[in-house]
Design a protein that fits this description.
Number of helices: 34
Structural class: alpha+beta
Distance between the termini: 21 Å
Helix content: 40-55%
Oligomer: single chain
Radius of gyration: 39 Å
Strand content: 5-15%
Shape: elongated
Number of strands: 20
Strand order of the largest sheet: 1-2-3-4-5-6-20-19-18-7-8-9-17
Largest sheet: 13 strands, mixed
Length: about 1050
């Protein structure tokens, strides 16, 4: 074992550093000495929760039996004592002033010496033996003193943070850095609380420090922390400083020098640190992760060392051998050990093979209903397709491209079914027990994982887990540049005749390339058929799935949020899930180019126009789409719901077909007179019974039509002329009312309109109403020749808009429809994660992510998105610049139609923030589905904690049996896949991934640093690591 150095006795390199510093050695010569150190690739040592994954999971988190053979062949020699000094010049060591030809300058190199570059061989820069020694730096401070001073400044700053900051369960960490001799030194301070502690919110810093100090001496659950730096697990320290040099791997001699400087610096600020701070310096880097450490406290000193061996000694694979090694290492007698030696153990088992994950609906995996891929196919020459057939010379290449595209689609489908869980780790813990409590030797062991006092399960999420819904949204965003070139959907598919030979050649090449990206004619027909099987609209009162209905009928604590979900999603102005527009958006997101989206759009419209002309049903809609009038507008004209303008046009087309095919075409059937007469008896001025007239079907308005009416009304200053905008409906209703109620007056008409129809009459001037009442003759609705709603005209206008929509406007509405449907689908899946048929809401963690995703999307697409014309939640138009009580009105798709503007997406930052929130929601939802499938019955109570924390304590026998079944199934699958050799053993009968032991010797009444004797051992199949902490009193 090497003799560590601290502030009491510096290493052999310190006199050289100090002497040359005082002699004024040039900065250039000193930098050469620094660069003479080993320059291997540095090893990062981040303070993150991934430390334990790297230590326990190894490369890729595989099982011990699957560790690549020969990975540690370099360490297969006999187990060397920790911190074996390496030969070679320290990177802090300066070039000696001894002449190069003197015997002292060229000692015999040992067998393990490291070759140094010529610049660091001790020769002068110019290679001349008689070079003149020149002093350029006349300062008296040595490099050691400079480094100590910089660390002291950082330590004082850290002490100030400890006094002012509140320490929570995550502890406190700070990073500092400074430059010295062209090297950057990095300082990492950290104070962590033991895992078993439960800090009170708002506790003072001293309270957290007391908990850290009170648990560092005794073993317990905190001995094997789940999320902590490896130093805490190896040495049991909770307050430490790590000094490293960026881009450099420090050898042992240099590490001793830096450690001495750190220990001296900490001693200068020692009274401010409670508990005392331990100092560490990484040595050599690489997979060995060696450290030198030191703690000075109260006249006592503790030294820390750790090393890794590439071959496991059979005598150290069990607790009995480790206890004997402990006694020899610390020179402790057997009688003293039997009284004061406490042990802790942890066995870790790994499961990384699981059954196929079903995930979300099959429609999300990019595969059509017949098993064919929905996107990215080659296109054949067919009627109605604008893509030209490939030439004979390029046919072979295109066929190969189609085959490659089909293969990539198949691989993509497999990837989207990948499990979001990469692996699970089961930790079986014996936190603290006396030496003779359990027998564990080479022939027999009482450390049975099944009866371990504590089980803790931890999962590792897969970095490559697919997110099909989020991916579809990003695919649509990639089409933005191409969409800006499309001025009309129909015109984009009409090929213009080339005027020159070069233009003809360019068009042929372009069409040949597009034929690879576009679906074939047969595939396009299948996609169109899928769209036409979806209803055009979904009533606002219906839910998307039984799971979503369960979420809407949740417990009182979450019922309000579930009931408010659909209105909030409606503010995105997309399309409801399961509608035709949502299906178009879903299939369009699976295309390889925007032209495929336009082709699908136009094919669907062509089929719908054909059905309209032949008076066939447009879609399997059981009831008309929801519409409603606005009382403040004083007319019966109905508006469509809060959806995108394209969805409103589809609903207008559907209502036109329904009205045309009705037996009473053009009429709105009134309520029976007898039933209504009971409610309004005596309302007539003459005392006669009121008869409810049959009225004409009211006009239907999409948001662009509402906007046109509002702009026209705003441009008319005369009230009577402005009232004429609604004159057709008023005159029709007056004529029908007079015909049904002979002798009625204007007051009777206005009373009936306000009290029964709920419409205001304030927008109409009194004189204008009186003149209209006198001028309009009595005539029933059946006798009236004009109609308020003309289905043929409205259908043609709707089809004209849909066929000539601009590319950016089409893509924007498709994107919002896909976004709204994705959030609705994820919300239903999150509710299903609570259990099929369970009358409870989604897990709390998923509800938080859902609210974040919806809020981010609303922030991107609502308040502040459009400063011009806005719309209210009912789809009615607003005035330019109208304010909204929520901080901004909803945007209006009809603005660009009316005002000729080119619609565009929100800002890139807002879009990326929304997509990142949706991705987080989808990733957690898929994780919850996977956990729910793996943990049925009693294991379901673990899902919430695993989802939010990534780990969970196993507290019941039922949960232990389920986890054992999961790990047994994983082992069987790994053997089936050929990654493990079948041995017929169970999970706990086979070797674990890692066995960890902690042995601590300390008298019960002593908390002195000098009495510290602690050893940590980690044993794997092909390697082992031993960390030692030893204390002694300074004389």
């Amino acid at each position: 074992e090497p003799q560590l150095v601290g502030t009491a006795r510096l290493s052999s390199s310190l006199p050289v550093v100090g002497q040359l510093g005082r002699l004024g050695c040039s900065r250039h010569r000193f930098s050469q000495g620094l660069m003479a150190a080993k320059m291997r690739a540095p090893a990062s040592d981040p303070l993150s929760s991934s430390d334990e994954d790297e230590d326990l999971g190894g490369a890729g988190g595989r099982r011990r039996s699957r560790v690549a053979s020969g990975a540690n062949d370099a360490g297969n020699a006999a187990f060397a004592p920790p911190l074996r000094p390496l030969a070679g010049r320290s990177f802090l060591e300066e070039v000696p002033a001894t002449p190069p030809d003197s015997p002292a300058a060229s000692p015999a190199a040992p067998t393990d010496a490291i070759a140094l570059p010529p610049a660091a061989s001790g020769d002068d820069d110019d290679g001349d033996d008689g070079a003149v020694f020149e002093i350029r730096d006349f300062t008296t401070a040595s490099s050691f003193e400079r480094i100590t001073h910089q660390i002291t400044l950082a330590a004082k700053k850290w002490a100030g943070l400890l006094r002012t900051e509140t320490i929570d369960e995550d502890g406190l960490m700070s990073r500092e850095e400074f430059n010295h001799m062209e090297f950057k030194y990095e300082l990492t301070f950290q104070l962590v609380l033991p895992e078993a502690s439960d800090p009170t919110p708002g506790a003072s810093p001293s309270a957290g420090v007391d908990k850290a100090r009170s648990t560092t001496d005794r073993l317990g659950l905190h001995t094997f922390p789940m999320r902590a730096h490896r130093l805490q697990r190896w040495f049991g320290v909770h307050h430490f400083l790590i000094v490293s040099v960026r881009g450099q791997n420090i050898d042992v001699d240099s590490a001793r020098t830096v450690l001495s400087a750190a220990a001296l610096a900490v001693q200068n600020v020692a009274p401010a640190f409670d508990p005392p701070i331990s100092c560490f310096v990484p040595v050599d880097g690489g997979k060995r992760r060696r450290y030198l450490g030191e703690l000075m406290c109260g006249g006592a000193r503790a030294v820390y060392s750790v090393d890794q061996r590439g071959k496991v000694d059979a005598s150290l694979e069990h607790l009995e051998g480790l206890q004997d090694f402990f006694c020899r290492k610390f020179a402790v007698g057997a009688k003293e050990v039997s009284r004061n030696l406490m042990c802790g153990a942890r066995f870790t088992y790994l499961a990384d093979a699981f059954d196929p994950f079903e995930g979300l609906d099959a429609g999300d995996n990019g595969i059509c209903g017949d098993g064919a891929s929905c996107s990215g196919r080659g296109s054949s020459d067919s009627e109605g397709s604008t893509a030209a057939s490939p030439s004979a010379s390029s046919g072979g290449a295109e066929r190969e491209a189609r085959v490659a595209a089909a293969q990539s689609e198949a691989l993509l489908a497999d990837d989207e079914q990948a499990d979001p869980i990469e692996s699970m780790q089961l930790h079986c813990l014996w936190p603290s027990f006396p030496r003779d409590s359990f027998v564990d030797n080479a022939t027999y062991s009482e450390l049975d994982p099944r009866i371990a006092p504590f089980w803790k399960l931890r999962l590792t999420k897969s970095d490559q887990a697919p997110l099909p819904l989020s991916k579809s949204l990003r695919t649509l965003l990639d089409f933005r540049k191409e969409a800006r070139t499309v001025r009309s959907a129909t015109a984009a598919l009409t090929a213009n005749a080339p005027k020159t030979a070069m233009a003809s050649l360019s068009m042929a090449i372009q069409e040949s390339l597009e034929s690879i990206l576009l679906p074939s004619d047969a595939e396009m027909q299948d996609l169109v058929a899928q769209c036409l099987t979806c209803p055009i609209s979904t009533p606002s009162s219906s839910s998307t799935s039984p799971a979503f209905a369960a979420a809407a009928a949740a417990a009182p604590s979450s019922a309000g949020a579930a009931a408010d979900l659909l209105p909030r999603l409606a503010r995105l102005r997309g399309a409801r899930l399961t509608t035709l527009m949502a299906k178009l958006a879903e299939l369009g997101s699976q295309m390889r180019c925007f032209k495929g989206v336009v082709m699908l759009w136009c094919r669907v419209l062509a089929q719908m126009r054909h059905r309209w002309d032949s008076e066939q049903p447009l879609a399997p809609d059981a009831e008309p789409p929801p519409t409603g009038s606005v009382s403040a507008r004083a007319v019966r004209a109905e508006h469509f719901g809060s959806s995108c303008l394209a969805q409103q046009k589809f609903e207008m087309l559907l209502r036109s077909a329904q009205v045309r095919s009705a037996s009473s075409a053009g009429l709105c059937m009134g309520t029976h007179a007898g039933a209504m007469a009971e409610e309004v008896e005596g309302l007539l001025a003459s005392g006669a019974q009121l008869l409810v007239p049959e009225l004409l079907h009211p006009a239907l308005l999409t948001e662009d039509m509402v906007l046109q009416l509002d702009m026209a009304a705003a441009s008319i200053a005369e009230p009577a002329e402005r009232a004429e905008l609604c004159g057709r409906e008023l005159r029709s209703d007056v004529a029908a009312f007079k015909a049904a109620n002979v002798g009625a007056s204007l007051e009777d008409f206005l009373t009936w309109r306000t009290r029964l129809l709920g419409l205001s009459v304030e927008p109409f001037p009194r004189e204008w109403l009186e003149e209209m009442w006198e001028a309009v003759p009595a005539k029933s609705a059946a006798e009236q020749s004009s109609r308020l709603f003309e289905p043929e005209r409205e259908a043609e206008m709707a089809l004209h808009y849909l066929e000539n929509i601009e590319g950016t406007h089409l893509l924007l509405q498709v994107f919002r429809s896909r976004l709204s449907a994705a959030l609705e689908e994820l919300s239903a899946s999150a509710a299903a994660a609570a259990g099929a048929g369970a009358a409870e809401a989604a897990p709390a963690y998923l509800r938080v992510l859902r609210e974040r995703a919806i809020s981010a999307c609303l922030t991107a697409f609502t308040g502040g998105y459009r400063a011009g014309i806005q719309c209210d939640a009912a789809g009615s138009g607003g005035s330019p610049g109208a304010d909204d009580t929520n901080g901004g009105g909803d945007f209006c798709d009809g603005a660009n139609v009316v005002m000729g503007e080119v619609d565009d997406f929100p800002s890139e930052d807002a879009l990326q923030a929304a997509l990142q929130a949706v991705e987080a929601f989808e990733a957690s939802t898929r994780l919850a589905q996977s956990l729910r499938a793996k943990f049925p019955g009693p294991g379901a109570s673990l899902v919430e904690e695993l989802l939010s924390e990534g780990e969970a304590a196993v507290t019941s026998d039922g949960q232990r049996r389920i986890i054992e079944d999961i790990f047994h199934r994983s082992r069987v699958l790994a053997q089936t896949q050929g990654r493990e050799a079948p041995d017929g053993r169970g999970v706990f009968e086979s070797l674990p991934l890692a066995k960890e032991f902690v042995l601590s010797h300390q008298p019960p009444a002593s908390a002195d640093t000098a009495a510290t004797k602690r050893m940590y051992a980690e044993i794997r199949e092909r390697q082992m690591r031993i960390a030692i902490a030893r204390g002694f009193r300074l004389t």
